[in-house]
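Q: Got a minute? One more chain.
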Amino acid sequence: MKRFFILLVLAFPLAASAQKLTESAIDDISTKMAATFLKLNDPALVFVTEQMSRSGAGGLEVDKTMQDLKKDPATLDAALKFLYQYSDCNRQTFIANLKAMNINSSNVFPIATYTVNKYKNEAKELTDEKAALYKANAIPKAITLMVAPPANTNQASTAALDGPAPANATSGQQPATTSAPATINTTAAGIESADTRNWDVRLVFGMTKPDQLLDLYGKDNVELRDATDFDGNDAGKAWVVYPDTENEMAVVFYKDSTKTITFAGENAKWRAPFGIKPGDPIEKVQKVNGRGFKINGFEWTNGGTVDSFEGGQLDKKGVNLLFKALNTGDPKLYDQFTGEKTFRSDAGGVKKLGVIVEKVEFRTSK
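A: Always. Here it is, folded:
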């Protein structure tokens, strides 16, 4: 029995060390991930960043987050999870990717042990999700710069990041670009040129002034217009990108350096954090949030807006949503969800009402 307790005492520090990372390891992985991220074309960090953005784990300004992961332990854990996912949940591949980022050799194995133990029960789910994302082209293999569409020219201009595009780590083939599905421009010769624009909303989050919008999207594609909030009240002036199109997006810059980004086109091409877009059913939003949430009653002050995400994944992340009901023909049913009240997204009757996202708004922090 005595030997048993001695072995138990000796084993306990090893078990405990697998449950948390040292300050040295945290600082190392945060610094090296930031350096790799800033290259912008490393396939592993492209995958991690995209997954951080899709899941919302990195917040709205995920670019800032990726450059200082040690500030938030939960966010660092998410980054490690997605690097493990990129590594096909294989310990040796994960270790190889850590070494490729020049992680200190004394930190590689503790980080690998910590991550593998933490996410071992999710390995199959993560591996299956990765395969599905690549199959659906939901994860780009590289990040490219936004290029405005050609204006009265015969050819579409393009831009690329410095350096060669990284190869697909699994197939060895050159990766696809992140350009949006083509908007057709007909040349004088009748030949169609592809739209090379990047539709990632994340590009706007780091902006501090309207001139950056003009540079990114082109002066001909941005107008200054009156802005209104979700309730139709005056909200000052907004810089509107691609006005009067399905891709219309309004950006309001505030004096405190925050900004709101709003879009409502159900067929808009914008790729947003959490994967939420106009037209999405309320059930999808609830799944992303991880729990039910409260909505203000329709046809009243702030009608159809989120009252509280109830501590879910979307809570306090700068996300504001406006919902609408498609099936309002049954007055008895619809009346249950109108007026000065709130209702839960998972309440009986909500699905029958056909509630979908009407408008999406993101507000950045200072």
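A: The chain has 13 helices and eleven strands.
Q: Perfect, thanks.
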